[in-house]
Design brief:
This protein is α+β, with helices and mostly antiparallel strands. The chain is built from 14 helices and 13 strands. It folds into 2 domains: 181 residues, no CATH class; 182 residues, no CATH class. 55% of the residues lie in helices and 16% in strands. Strands 1, 3, 4, 5, 6, 7, 8, 9, 10, 12 and 13 form an 11-stranded mixed β-sheet that branches.
């Protein structure tokens, strides 16, 4: 009988035990893979800020970056729209884009701004056209269009606030365009005109009482020293907060890194325990099968063949567990997507990354080596003694 046939027969005899071992490996692998997928998704989101600078109401710069550039938090406050003209007049400003938030659609933020949002600096159109400033028209990001199956000429009803409460006078907005994918927060937002935003009845009352306001202004400074000159000028103002995206995202990544290492360590520990279980099981199986293995030796099977039989069984269990773990890890991210969206403000996007594949390969190699060490007594099996003991 071939090595493959012997392995298959042995695994069939121990199918319950083998399945339990494979599921243990799958669970440990799945936890590690899920964490790696989440980390890769978060790193991608935080690596592509919409703008290098963002200006808003006094408060935490990190919170402003999270809310106004990544759209994972609520705006902290508002600034007068007149600030926009001041920023555009500054000699170090290349581009300034106003942003007003407050509405949402199926969990995705609605961003009120100017039609120049699609001029290529922030995003560009994939299909359709840009919204008219005062019309009930909306341009949707690539991820929103894909998730909600939206295309030009569809109509949507925007909700008020993160809870998406209905407006006093509900109105349908016409989808007129879809943005090209950017890999950043723009993909997960809907864009409307500022004048249309102010014209919504619920917003009109606030504008009449407090004046036109913005939640932020996205800024791109001119090249060279202008970045430092612009941030320096804005830091001296008490009525505004300026946040540098790269600086704040660097702080966020450092905090995330500490938590990430801790959780990954715990998940890795559970995987190690599962692999040790495989090694112990294979050691016990080899001891209980001494007569069977001795008979194989007696009829002419070499030491390497018998030892390879045990290694192949271990590798098969680890390979099945690692494969199931890859699928389980991605399934966990997909199942938990709704919870993440509700708690953090975004739905993780599934995607294969080289780290997940490397983990699966490492599980197979490490598990097989552990099984090899545990069953090393098979290589030096004393055939006469094993047959006499039986």
């Amino acid at each position: 009988m071939t090595l493959y046939g012997l392995v298959r027969r042995a695994l069939r005899r121990r199918r319950r035990e083998g399945l339990a071992l494979a599921l243990g490996v799958a669970l440990g692998t799945g936890l590690v893979v899920a964490l790696l997928v989440l980390r890769a998704d978060l790193e991608q989101r935080t690596a592509r800020a919409v703008a290098p600078l963002v200006v808003g109401a006094p408060g935490s710069p990190l919170q402003m970056v999270l809310s106004e550039l990544l759209f994972v938090d609520e705006p902290a406050g508002r600034i007068p729209r007149t600030v926009l003209a001041e920023l555009r007049a500054h000699p170090s400003t290349r581009v300034a884009l106003p942003v007003a938030r407050g509405d949402a659609f199926h969990g995705y933020p609605v961003v009120a701004t100017e039609p120049s949002v699609t001029d290529g600096t922030w995003a560009s159109l994939r299909e359709g056209r840009v919204f008219a400033p005062a019309a009930r028209e909306v341009v949707v990001g690539a991820a929103v269009a894909r998730a909600l199956d939206l295309r030009p000429d569809d109509r949507v009803e925007l909700g008020h606030g993160r809870e998406e409460a209905a407006h006093a006078e509900p109105e349908l907005w016409l989808v007129v365009g879809v943005l090209a994918p950017t890999g950043g927060a723009v993909d997960r937002a809907l864009f409307i005109g500022l004048e249309a935003f102010y014209g919504v009845p619920d917003h009109r009352a606030v504008v009449a009482r407090e004046g036109e306001s913005l939640t932020a202004v996205w800024l791109v400074p001119k090249a060279g020293m202008h970045h430092a000159l612009l941030t320096g000028a804005l830091r001296g103002r008490q009525d505004l907060t300026v946040a540098e995206a790269e600086v704040e995202l660097g702080r966020l990544r450092r905090v995330m890194g500490r938590v990430d290492r801790l959780v990954l360590g715990l998940a890795g520990l559970s995987l190690l325990v599962a692999l040790l279980g495989v090694a112990v099981s294979q050691h016990q199986a080899a001891r209980s099968r001494r007569r069977e293995l001795a008979l194989l030796r007696a009829i002419g099977a070499g030491r390497r063949f018998v030892y390879g039989l045990v290694l192949a069984e271990t590798a098969w269990i680890c390979a099945v567990g690692a494969t199931l773990g890859l699928a389980l890890g991605h399934a966990l991210v997909w199942i938990g997507g709704t919870w993440f969206e509700a708690q953090i403000g975004f739905r993780p996007e599934l995607g294969w990354n080289h780290e997940s594949v490397l983990v699966a390969v490492a599980v197979i190699v490490t598990g097989t080596l552990a099984g090899a060490l545990a069953a090393r007594g098979v290589y030096g099996l004393d055939v006469p003694a094993a047959l006499d003991d039986a």
